[in-house]
Amino acid sequence: MTRTTTSALTLAFALIAGTAHADTLTYITYKPQGANDAHSRSLQWFVDKFAERTGGKHTIEVFWGGSVAAVGETPEALANGVGDMGDIVTPYFPDQFPLNNAIGFFIPQPMDSREVGQAMVDWHAEYPEFVEELSSQNLHAVSFRPLENYGLLCKDPVENMADLEGKRVRSYGFAYPALIEAMGATPVSITTSDTYEALERSIVDCAPIGPVLARGFKYDEVAKYYIEMPFGASFGHILTMNLDSYKALDDDTRAVLDQLGEDYMVEYASMLEAEETRVLELWQEELGVSVLPFPDEELTALIDHQGVQAVRAEWEDKAEATGLEIEGILAKLRF
């Protein structure tokens, strides 16, 4: 985002925020309020609980749907005080937040969604470099929103690795392009918003995703086979606060916010799991999506592929350059 854009956003938001009560924090998110998914519903839970636990002394006003900052602008917007809090979609910023994107360099990895969330909590508590990566950009992590376990949604059945030979697979980030090539398939870089059409028009044959997100983006309307590939859970979002705003809170309010961040992860995980159960039932009963098993060992064998190892080594080099002791982290990321 350019300096001019940041200044314009700051001015626009100042006009909005100027009408808010002095004890109102502002939250900016790309999520639409009417999405009715685990992300938006858990955020509303967070907002409601914050008001309840502060006895109404403090509230959070949410600006939904990217109305203040688009998803790609959020880190800089928050750092510059364009909103007190917001969602940072971490995988979109692997160079800006390499440590906090560790999981994105290690696909497949063995942790599920709850374990990924706990890993992020543990790493922030045990390794100051994770906190410093954010604080150096005037940001503070309030909580974490891991994504679900990912599989592969395809237009045709896939029973083993041989069936993926020559397939075109939607790709993004660092790990997936290398892993897809190791599968013998062709990675195709496509945005989330363009993937529906790409599947519909057979520009791509498959896309890595979880059931909840597949239903949310309606990919399951145009691709009817979900392959249970053991990619592990992806890490998604950091519920982030402007560091100056966080420090300006009184001790009691800061304690409420810290505890709420811990409780949020539990509530969000429960919502996500319930939503996945609902989607799987819809797939079986109404939407006609087949869930197919996949031989785990065929995927995990690809970890030794030169390209996959190169991506992992890239993260290790970046992490060690910060002074981070990486062995404890790698122990959770390796099969």
Automatic annotation (TrEMBL):
Pfam families assigned to the protein according to its UniProt record, in alphabetical order: DctP
Subcellular location: Periplasm
Record key words, sorted: Periplasm, Signal
GO terms under biological process: transmembrane transport
Main location: periplasm
Top-level division of the source organism's lineage: Bacteria
Residues spanning the signal sequence: 1-22
GO CC entries: periplasmic space
InterPro entries with a match to the protein in the record: DctP_fam, TRAP_DctP_sf
Presence of keyword Signal: yes
Protein name, UniProt field: C4-dicarboxylate ABC transporter substrate-binding protein
Lineage, uppermost ranks: Bacteria, Pseudomonadati, Pseudomonadota, Alphaproteobacteria, Rhodobacterales
